[in-house]
């Protein structure tokens, strides 16, 4: 390692061959305090990372290896785990046992309760949580909501993309007591990259290109539990005391999340601008969240490729409903970018390091 790189945190990416792994590589190449020293993935082991992701050609040429916890501990200070639920918990446990700061992009440490994890994510291979003892250590990684807890954290549970958009849209209004926690409805849309890189019929171009479809409706989507957990905290309610109707949709685009959250106001006589002003107050000093001017609405095309979030809140006086909206890139602020922001927060670095790029447009 050169003298110029000796003061940089050494980073390993586990699950480097997926979309979130590739995005971590891309973003970390521009991080002045981090250096990618190892990339690991089961199926792509033996290939170079720029063979798996040709857009990295000439930028990152590390060979992909099979996961080895001792090798990670010897060559990295920090590890990002971008692995499937259940499988990730075992990898994270091995890394934490060796003192490696770990940011987990699966859902294995997002839910505080092991029984809740088993109910939503349990499988034949892992009917119970594989590393339940670590749940108390994990910090839920939305810096705008849990910044203080992230400082010095050794294990960060990086949130899902749908929850990030939904929580950032409505949590400030709940926290301010402006909307009721009863009857919340979340209508959200995602690009196909949210389904991961493994090919599937539902995201095959001829199957998805000319339609918009809802999926996993009626409380069936796993992100429901994560959203309810965090919104209950915002509303100062006990765990399990808040329920939402969450309906996700697949859109024929590659990137993006748009979440529309419908809520009942706690005072129908309140000034209509109070809801947007609550967002302004909550996010006035946040580097990545833009509360749009009154009358402007979030658009996924305006945040693509960036860690930025556009939010807005409006009041429908006729229907007596508040609508809070957020748009973000599901692979950046909804996954890899937020993970890097959490690393920055955990290490006490400026949260914008490695994440300052403007959105891509058109």
What do these coordinates show?
There is one protein chain. With 362 residues, this protein is α/β, with parallel strands linked by helices. The protein has two domains: 3-137, Rossmann fold, CATH 3.40.50; 162-330, Dihydrodipicolinate Reductase, domain 2. The protein is 29% helix and 19% strand. The chain has eleven helices and 14 strands. A seven-stranded parallel β-sheet has the order 3-2-1-4-5-7-6, sandwiched between helices. A seven-stranded mixed β-sheet has the order 9-10-8-11-14-13-12. A hairpin with a 4-residue loop joins strand 13 (309-316) and strand 14. The longest helix is centred in the last third of the chain and has 16 residues, at 332-347. It is globular. It starts with 8 loop residues before the first strand and ends in a 15-residue tail after the last helix. The relative contact order is 0.14. The model has no long low-confidence stretch (mean pLDDT 96).
CATH homologous superfamily label of the largest domain: Dihydrodipicolinate Reductase, domain 2
- The neighbouring-strand order within the major sheet is 3-2-1-4-5-7-6
CATH architecture label of the largest domain: 2-Layer Sandwich
- Helix- and strand-based class? alpha/beta
Between the first and last Cα atoms, what is the distance in angstroms?
A: 39 Å
What proportion strand? Answer: 15-25%
Secondary-structure element string: EHEHEHEHEHEHEHEHEHEEHEEEH
Helix content: 25-40%
Number of helices, where a helix is a run of at least 4 consecutive DSSP H or I residues = 11
Domain unit count: 2
Determine Rg (CA atoms, Å): 20 Å
Largest sheet: 7 strands, parallel
Q: Extract low-pLDDT stretches.
A: none
């Amino acid at each position: 390692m050169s003298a110029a790189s000796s003061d940089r945190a050494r980073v390993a990416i586990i699950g480097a061959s997926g979309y979130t792994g590739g995005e971590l590589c891309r973003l970390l190449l521009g991080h002045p305090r981090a250096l990618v020293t190892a990339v690991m993935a089961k199926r792509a082991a033996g290939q170079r990372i720029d063979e798996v992701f040709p857009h990295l050609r000439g930028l990152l040429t590390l060979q992909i290896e099979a996961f080895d916890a001792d090798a990670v501990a010897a060559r990295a200070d920090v590890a990002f785990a971008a692995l499937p639920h259940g499988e990730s918990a075992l990898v994270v446990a091995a890394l934490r046992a060796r003192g490696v700061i770990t940011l987990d992009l699966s859902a294995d440490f997002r839910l505080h309760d092991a029984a809740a994890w088993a109910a939503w994510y349990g499988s034949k291979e892992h009917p119970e949580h594989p590393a339940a003892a670590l749940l108390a250590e994990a910090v839920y990684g939305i810096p705008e909501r849990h910044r203080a807890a992230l400082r010095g954290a050794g294990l960060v549970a990086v949130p899902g993309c749908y929850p990030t958009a939904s929580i950032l849209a409505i949590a400030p209004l709940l926290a301010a007591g402006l909307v009721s926690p009863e009857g919340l409805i979340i209508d959200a849309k995602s690009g196909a990259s949210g389904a991961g890189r493994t090919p599937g019929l539902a995201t095959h171009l001829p199957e998805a290109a000319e339609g918009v479809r809802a999926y996993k409706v009626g409380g069936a989507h796993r992100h429901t539990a994560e959203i309810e957990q965090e919104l209950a905290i915002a509303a100062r309610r006990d765990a399990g005391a808040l329920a939402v109707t969450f309906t996700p949709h697949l859109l024929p685009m590659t990137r993006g999340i748009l979440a529309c959250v419908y809520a009942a106001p706690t005072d129908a006589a309140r000034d209509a601008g109070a809801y947007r002003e609550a967002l302004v107050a909550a996010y006035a000093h946040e580097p990545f969240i833009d509360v749009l001017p009154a009358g402007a609405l979030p658009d996924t095309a305006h945040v693509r490729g960036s860690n930025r979030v556009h939010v807005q809140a409006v009041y429908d006086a006729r229907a007596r409903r508040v609508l809070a909206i957020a748009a973000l890139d599901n692979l950046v602020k909804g996954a890899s970018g937020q993970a890097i922001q959490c690393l920055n927060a955990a290490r006490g670095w400026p949260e914008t390091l490695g994440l300052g790029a403007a959105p891509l447009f058109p």
